[in-house]
Amino acid sequence: MMTDLRFALRQLLKSPGFTSLALLTLALGIGLNTAIFSLINDLFLRGLQFKEPGRVVHMYSNARQRNLLELAVSVPRFQHFRASQKIFDGFEGENIIPFTLTGLGDAVQLFGGKVTSNYFDVLGVQPIRGRNFLPEEEETADVAMVTENFWQKRMGGDPNVIGRSITLDGVPHTIVGVLPNLPGMTIEQARAALPPLEQSYRAQYPDKIDSSSVMTLKTLPEDVTGNLRPAFATLLAAVAFVLLIACSNVANLLLVRFSGRRREIALRMALGASRASVLRLFIFESLLVSVLAGAVGAGLAYELVPFVPKMAANFLPFDPETSISLSLPVLGFTILLSLLTGVAMGVYPALQSSRADLVEGLKEGGRGTSGSMQQHRFRKILVGTQVALSVTLLAGAALLITSFVKLSQQNIGFRPQNMWTGLVTLPQAAYPDSATRQRFVEKTLAALQRIPTIQSATISGDIPLIAAAAANMLYTRPDGEILPVDKRAAAAGHDIAPGYFKTFSIPILAGRDIDQHDAADHQNVMLISQAGARKVFGNENPIDKTLLISSASTPVEIIGVVGDVRMRRIADPDEVEIYRPWAQENFP
């Protein structure tokens, strides 16, 4: 066998052009398949690295009739459920928010979470250093747990990290644990057991605005990766087509190559070699090509995969600082794929070529390298397969390009060209009230406006299509029947500074813009989107009309109507959008 392998290697080295072409063609197909499988393995097959992730559920509050979907559970409701429930083995809460880290070099913004003390116990995550939070630390202690990435990159892997202090939002926190890097009852029984808890909450808190909403449960894998499955299935099918095209190409090359060695085959068989030994020789040659291509493909995938968290952090549940590597299952997939590829593309050419006619093969003229009728027929089938797969891929690519062109031509309501955006979190300790936050806004805007190359600058609480974390604002009209708080619809509310609409090139269709006079001690004002004005007021002129905002029913005067903006997703329909001055951020 080793002799056959050495001979196959010598044959490949004698034809560097064929070997390079076949190797690179297959390496591209195997590399793309390995890269996509690596992502699928991390997202779907391996599962989230928690204890029994299928039994971990996320709980949301929903009031569909008021356009309130998948809201975070309120603190009173969470506390009531945690104290009263007998459904779950553990019940924990999380609030994912940005923090400003200072004291370790330049100030940076990091995303983290404020969690209940049993958070990591419920997930089954044990720290690699230190300990988990204690119950008595839940409300009063300034303690923190950091990830292994943070410990290594921000703190240099300090072995004495436990007990060190880091400053988050201006408040010192003591590190008590380092977490590993991690991107009972059935869920049907849990859903069935929720109504009694909801009824007891409504009875105890009838005046809470979320007393009329309904709780829903989603398993953790479903919540994190559920909507990604169709896209990745399509992507895997596309790269599988690429590999099939590569296989048919190389099979065609092998058929021509093996046909050109008919004299060698006839000579071997005339000297006593069996057909099985000749067949084995050619299959080894095919397998050697595919294994070498698999090694190159694995290297290609190794280079491609780490870019995904950085390029698609907004769409995939990966930490941009976390490296996705080729795990053992992925390498096993690559080896298996390489072997299957070698067998699939090499068996038929080897079978056809080993059926050599000794007399014909030994003649100088013979058939030359033209091959038999069966070989011609097989080559035609391969060409037809390549054309069919290529047409399918091209059709899919054409549909993708068409969709992209349509999306790029959608009117998103603002002009993103030549616009720079940034995200800043104001630490609560340094900016405890609206007055200090307003001074920050004024100073920052003044500094930006002094830069000669900046034509316009503004500040807002969120950014369209990037960080659209607008608050849900309840509203109702004061004229006619005033709806109770728990029956009111909700709209997306945006805190903006003067110059917002000019900077984003959002047209003001009626009324006026906000200005420096719209301060906290003046009349509460707002602007409303065109779709919102149409939905709330119909054909009436909304200018100078009043809406009651929030659960406090604060009256707010409408001073303008602006163009519709796609805030969350391009494909979303236009909704009610409310814009209020940053200086009046706390008016409700």
Characterize the structure shown.
- The structure is a single chain.
- This protein is of the alpha+beta class and 588 residues long.
- The protein has 17 helices and 16 strands.
- Strands 3, 4, 5, 6, 7 and 8 form a 6-stranded mixed β-sheet that branches. Strands 10-11-16-13-15-14 form a 6-stranded mixed barrel.
- Helix 1 (2-14) crosses helix 10.
Q: Can you summarize the main beta sheet?
A: 6 strands, mixed
Characterize the overall form: elongated
**Unreliably modeled segments:** 364-369
Radius of gyration: 33 Å
User: What's the N-to-C terminus distance?
Assistant: 82 Å
Structural class: alpha+beta
Our estimate of the beta-strand percent is 15-25%
Tell me how many strands there are.
16
Residues in helices, as a percent range: 40-55%
Number of helices: 17
What keyword list fits this structure?
six-stranded mixed barrel, 16 strands, 44% helix
Task: Please outline what is shown here.
This protein is 44% helix and 16% strand.
List the helices and strands and how they pair.
Layout: H1 2-14, H2 16-45, E1 57-63, E2 68-71, H3 75-84, E3 94-102, E4 108-115, H4 119-123, E5 129-130, E6 143-147, H5 148-154, E7 165-168, E8 171-179, H6 187-204, E9 214-219, H7 220-225, H8 229-259, H9 262-270, H10 275-304, H11 307-311, H12 328-354, H13 358-362, H14 373-408, H15 434-449, E10 471-476, E11 489-496, H16 500-503, E12 508-511, E13 525-529, H17 530-537, E14 546-549, E15 554-562, E16 577-581
Parallel strand pairs: 6-8, 11-16, 13-15
Antiparallel strand pairs: 1-2, 1-9, 3-4, 3-7, 5-8, 7-8, 10-11, 10-14, 12-15, 13-16, 14-15
